[in-house]
Amino acid sequence: MNTSDLAQFEEEEAISGTGEGDEIMEEAEEQEDGYTSSTPTSTLTWISWFCSLPGHEYFCEVTEDFIEDDFNLTGLNTMVPFWKEAMEMVLDVEPDEDASKIPDVSIVESSAEMLYGLVHQRYILTRVGLAAMVDKYEAGIFGSCPRVYCMGSNVVPCGRSDIPGIDTVKLFCPNCNDIYVPPSSRFQGVDGAFFGTTFAHLFFQTYREFSPAPFWKAATSSSHSPRSSTGSVAHSATTATFVNPNPHGGQKRAAGYVYVPRIYGFKVSERAKCGPRMQWLRLRPESPDELEMVDWRGRWLDDDDEYDDDDDEDEEEEEDRQMEDFDPDANDDDDDDDDEEEEEEEEVRKGGARQHAVATAGSARTIPTANKSLGSGKLRAVRQWSPAVNTQGVVA
Amino acid sequence: MLHRAVDDVSTGSDSDYSRFWISWFLSSKGNEYFCEVDEDFILDRFNLTGLNNEVANYTQALDLITDQLDDDIQDELRGSLDVQARLLYGLIHARWIVTARGLAKMIEKYKRAEFGRCPRVMCLLQPLLPVGLTDIPYEKSVKLYCGRCEDLYSPKSSRHGSIDGAYFGTTFPHLLFLVYPTLIPPKSGPTDIGATTAAASGTREGENRIRRRLREEMDPTLAEGGGENISTASVALKAERYKPRIYGFQLNETAKLQRWQEAVRDRQVARLEELEERGS
Asked: What's the confidence (pLDDT) of residue A64?
């Protein structure tokens, strides 16, 4: 990304009088006003002043004793030129008499900014720093995710590198686990390293209640009509209590709807060249168990090259079958159910050998069980992104 | 929201109408997403079938759009008529941009990135396309579709955030990529349209210039219905994604989700590649 690029990107924003970003800005300013009015201007610290500058809304105020503790600054003195002068500026210490050897005060200013930024990167990883940032988060200072189906999930600032001068600050959305360019050009001058790569994620590890769970189940009414899923469902869903069985995982209900492109009301088939290719990026499984179906290499645990021999007509069945091995425990308890659901199969086999059928069910590792418990969940997730095969004719 | 935006513009400027309503409408602030609908499209009543039920004062609104309204119409009516004319123009617009000529006009705007660029960092400023979430007016505001990540984003500016999504419709961006498969953005690497001013930076300059020349040789606008030999079966594998890390280590729960998502992707790719093999 170079500057002309960004300039063009920002044009739109610059014209807008009352963008969303601006509203946030106003809020931030109000806070600052409150602060400055209670404090005489003469005693306004460099840190408060720096954090009140336009574009610096994402910064929180680092406490002076954190900066004064040399341990917290380990290694920074090699990265910041005019270290001593920069420290004096940040801490509002009267400079020494021989300060005149610095050719230009603006050099010290940029050093002070760098120093503060790098200390800030470390500070926001501490308990106090995280607490300071959570206040800003809850106040919506960092803005919300531009992605429509994140339903305005709040974002946090995030760097792409811990080394200054690489890239500007980005915004991390915990709902889609993705990063975005801040909507306002004010933030184009803010270095991402001043927030660092770790903060955003440590933040959501620390405050699990703000972190959306990795699974999502559409409310039954919405699974059929995605249009209605946006507003009403989100509301009804948030009222019910939500529990993630993983106590260390996200404790918030995710906004999980994934956009489905349609042409004249028909889903675009994935078989079309322009068909959906990226829905996986936003997809969530319906239940946490499904996450376990993929091993650490990213392969399906039961992936016995099922795609080498499937026919179009069999697709759904194939998907059923790949559940097979997942729930061996359920095998014993559900034998009766197995029998019932196996009945069709039995008939085909010309009955009589009921025991044999049960044995088959056992050896086939609970096809019906899979259908019953995990299968239903899995299948629906799969169907959600799998195309409406029949519409291909319409679309292509 | 919609009404407020409409009132703001319409009250002050009644007197200084430029000669044609449509060009006035297009040039007024906040209407940057709209393209010009050809007059003969509007004049062909077949194209307007059913719109008389959607728009009050349909006849006068249509006259206003086509600059045939009598001057002696009352001022009060004129005010409300303006709202109806916008609605009518919007609904005609939604039908127009899915025609061959309408698509071509929108492509020009798309190439100039007039609908903005994708805010997703990994999309590298991919230009966006407007889309509605419903084809019924007064329900949902316009959203922006990114052809690279295939997702929807809200416009940055509230001016555009208050435009009715039905004026663009649910079909438009997908029909565009269906008709012009050569315009489907690559899943990785720099955007090669709408970025002509942006592309030149340092070492990448030469590479981009070559790319652009290649691009110009097979002018995508001429390739309507073409692109038979494009394969998009495995493009998703090239897509970059962000991986959250704490002190360089991936997060357990997030990494698990991302592995699952990638497994879903791989399965789709395998499915599509197999289909393609059998098809060819």
From this structure: 92
